[in-house]
Structure to design on (690 residues):
């Protein structure tokens, strides 16, 4: 055992800093821009490099078709799950009335597309609405799994306007997506900084998205901690939202609330800013940290999540960079993995 | 600063052990066998996984043409560089007369292919001969570099029998090889365990090669140390070889002399044994440790080295696994990198 936890922490920080400095020294903060979508082979090479790429010219029918009227007509009386928060910060760290910070999930309301678009367009001061269910609301995992009996989803009526897979990505990875999502919100919603265990293809259909990205090597800059879990609830349909602690397990999440505020980041952090306009597509590699804001009256995006490659070293590398091996260093494996902490996102 | 070096070492070992256990837990010791060469896209996916693959059916004319007589006739009076050692251990750790261990390079003799093949076939008890120059003796880097004026090499007369690149590999990686080598030796020669900063395609033309492989995550099991440098020399063409220390910088090399002797390995090591017969090809991914023996009267192999992908995280990951960040952990970056130690191989 090391003599003290501060020593272990210093030892660990020195090493993480060395790794992220080396990575940044080799790669800088550049990102590639492709004027047209890659071939499967070109994309396979980009996946091997695992750095973000801005891809122009990837066309989906949704980009030209998805006006409010079209969406309302197409979706009809189908209910969709809408995240409701007082401040646009769903799945984010928020202080409760007790002063403690919680990982807080949104209140979820069911409504039709017509109701949603009316509310989000007319009420720019009240609660913030965001379609962001992230469960494959366009094509869920069951859609891709031959053994599943349920491939249905809330937005399935929109499927004719967006393909279930992206051929150059599926061929490069040798697999189908795990889930395809539609995101609809306005400039008041944001996504707190986190990373996903997925290769991600992200296309903006309407409006503009602003990504702030950090490589997996800068996980240490984002200071993940364990937070108690809460959800926004409301007692009656017209009562105000309140932050309600739950009995769910704590959630491991970045404690950097606004990574665009550089004063909250260690000097070793090198954020990369990429703005996507309608028609732009981002390859967001597995394990990259992202903080996402949006601008425009209504912003709509689509994303295709592909499972990460579990063979090889990628999972181990990403886990290590997130500090999974840290407590093992002290020779006390029992401390490892924060067994009471749930992974989110 | 940590209070003591043993503490730092323990801390570091615990972490490396965690990483290599996680990696082995996910990947095991399996390797894929392909009955035919992959397409460029299939190979790109294999490169992303970065595990060894035995590839059958990759044909080069050399496999059918390279008899002794053919090689002698084709090479004519062209001299080739032949590594000469007393024991078949070129570029290996060997004890000198002073009892110290040295990283010892072979004596190099120039001779014709006829002289070489006669010696190696007739004298199975004297010094061991091995064509193993590893400098692109078939196609050197200058051959692939448009700005170079010299693409010549010792074995260039054999080029018509082996292509300068492997289409499925060059297309998958998006680059040409860095060097292509011919290896000719007998069962008395071996290659000590080491790793290379190259993606490697290795084809056996005659005889049999026995590879013992370790993933980059098991670098710690191979215990690299800094060794003084030596070379075999002989005072006159007929005097016996002697191990002569040089003034070259020390060399960082594995201290495991025979990784096939499991008693010399830590319990965390998981060697993978792959035997290649004539006509078999190995994809040996960048950073994988390999110990190579051969059997058969004369064993001939070809290998294509492709530079590793310097963009992305691979170089940092491999350096880290080899312990490059270790001394940084203690907060003393000046100790880092063993500045007086040369990388070999």
């Amino acid at each position: 055992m090391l003599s003290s936890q501060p020593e272990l922490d210093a030892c660990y920080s020195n090493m993480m800093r060395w790794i992220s400095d080396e990575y940044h020294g080799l790669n800088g903060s550049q990102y590639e821009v492709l004027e047209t979508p890659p071939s499967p082979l070109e994309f396979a090479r980009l996946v091997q490099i695992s750095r973000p790429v801005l891809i122009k010219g990837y066309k989906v029918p949704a980009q030209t078709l998805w006006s409010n009227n079209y969406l309302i007509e197409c979706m009809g009386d189908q209910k969709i799950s809408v995240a409701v928060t007082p401040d646009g910060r769903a799945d984010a760290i928020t202080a409760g009335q007790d002063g403690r910070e919680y990982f807080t999930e949104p209140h979820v309301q069911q409504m039709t597309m017509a109701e949603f678009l009316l509310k989000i367009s007319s009420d720019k001061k009240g609660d913030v609405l965001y379609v962001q269910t992230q469960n494959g609301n366009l094509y869920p995992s069951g859609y891709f799994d031959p053994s599943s009996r349920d491939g249905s989803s809330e937005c399935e009526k929109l499927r004719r306007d967006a393909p279930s897979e992206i051929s150059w990505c599926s061929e490069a990875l040798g697999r189908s997506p795990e889930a395809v999502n539609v995101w609809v919100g306005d400039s008041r919603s944001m996504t707190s900084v986190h990373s996903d265990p997925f290769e991600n293809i992200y296309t903006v259909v309407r409006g503009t998205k602003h990504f702030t990205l950090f490589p997996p090597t800068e996980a240490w800059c984002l200071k993940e901690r364990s937070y108690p879990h809460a959800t926004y609830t409301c007692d009656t349909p017209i009562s105000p939202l309140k932050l309600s602690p739950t009995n769910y397990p704590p959630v491991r999440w970045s404690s950097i609330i606004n990574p665009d505020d550089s004063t909250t980041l260690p000097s070793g952090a090198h954020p990369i800013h990429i703005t996507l306009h309608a028609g732009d597509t981002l390859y967001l590699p597995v394990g990259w940290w992202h903080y996402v804001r949006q601008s425009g009256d209504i912003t709509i995006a689509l994303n295709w999540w592909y499972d990460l490659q579990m063979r090889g070293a990628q999972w181990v590398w990403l886990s290590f960079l997130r500090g999974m091996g840290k407590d093992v260093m002290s020779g006390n494996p029992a401390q490892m993995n924060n067994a009471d902490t749930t992974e989110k996102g």
